[in-house]
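Record pair follows.
FIRST:
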Amino acid sequence: MSDESPQDIYPSMTIASEQSSEKIEPLKLGKRLKEIRKSFGLTLEEASQKTGLARSTLSKIENEQISPTFQAMQKLANGLQVDIPQLFAPPKQVTATGRRDITRSEEGKAHPTSTYEHELLATQLTNKKMMPFKSRIRARSFDDYGDWIRHDGEEFLLVLQGEINFFSEFYEPVNLSEGDSVYYDANMGHMLASVSEEDALILWVTAS
């Protein structure tokens, strides 16, 4: 799939405030798209599969290198299951210091992929600095992935059930069993594969 050619379809959008006379910066669509993608726990590759847009196109949009066409906007909205206005809506500013979000067992938001079966936790809170989720590891080998998984931030995982092989770009593969954990920089290529008889279950926490 070839990249979409840049087109300036949408006018520059600003975050309006009736109560503030301070200079307001334009809303960056790429930054907003990245926030939405990460809120769903999607890698660029997974977002590409859902939207039908090339991974390179998504990366260029997120980095403000190109502006998406109207057709691309429709694919983004349909693939990410959001309304087009949500792509332009600025994130709400949260100042509360007493927030909480309880997720009952098996009541997280399901998000299956070809290699993982994610259960997103604490989905009612916005603007989280951490994104927790449980994942059932379907992949069985390094070859089940098309490429390394990379994204911004840091990541922690704890094996809850079974055993996994943890692959990382700069280290030798290592087996992790129930109770084992690892903390790593998520912009380093990484991927997981179950090596136990049953698909392994892990707790994953991604921090921005």
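SECOND:
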Amino acid sequence: MTSKCNLIDKKTFLTGLFVIMVFVLTFFCAAPKKVYASEVNGTTNESTTNTEDDKAVNNNDLTFYFNSGEGSGTLSATLQMLLILTVITLAPSILIMLTSFIRIIVVLHFVRSALGTQTTPPNQVLIGLALFLTLFIMSPILTSINTNAIQPLSKGEITQEQAFTQGMEPLRDFMFDQTNEKDMQLFLDIAGVTEVESRADVPSTALIPAFIISELKAAFIIGFLIYIPFLVIDMVVASTLMSMGMMMLPPTTISMPFKILLFIMADGWNLVIGSVIKTFY
């Protein structure tokens, strides 16, 4: 028993000694080092060690210097970069919500659903078509924004605030032309805006959601009109199958070829795209 106790005591003593040695080595290895101005700036000039700045540095254990080389404009440049990154992040939302993209993509999805072709055309084709149609419709507005805001700002003729205001004017005019008065009044009442004498008195925070609701309403109206002829074909096919006693055959299987044939004979894509574009003029 005595030998075993002595063996345990020796193990405990050696373990404690090892832990203490590790602690001491860690403490000395992690001791803070003084960084002088000559070392921070990458020079080894000994004549500068007695200056007041170096004495202030010697009073601290570790000093870091951050210099972007832009002097007093560092904060402004950082905010500009942050603003640019924010705009780039929100660019898809701006493209979708503040342009004609909403109405076009919703109508195209209604066309595909009315035909009953499931995933034909695929989403990539519909989105690509909607994007190019949006660029076609919004090209005069984009040209106006480039002429009145982007180019003068790049030349330094106007400030960023002026560029934002002048760039929003043609976009606001487009949204005003496509927004219903009822939807606009809804958000003005919610926002508590009572006195509106001109378009300039309407805040963009109320204009944008009113525009989105108006676009969805217009798209659903167009989608309803598109559905009617295809719905008639479905009803005729379903009645014919029931009269023939073919209860187990899905009517959509038979009606889809007829709907595609009707769409091709009527030059459906020309009619749908042309009608949607004309709603913006």
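COMMENT: DSSP finds eleven helices and no strands in the chain.
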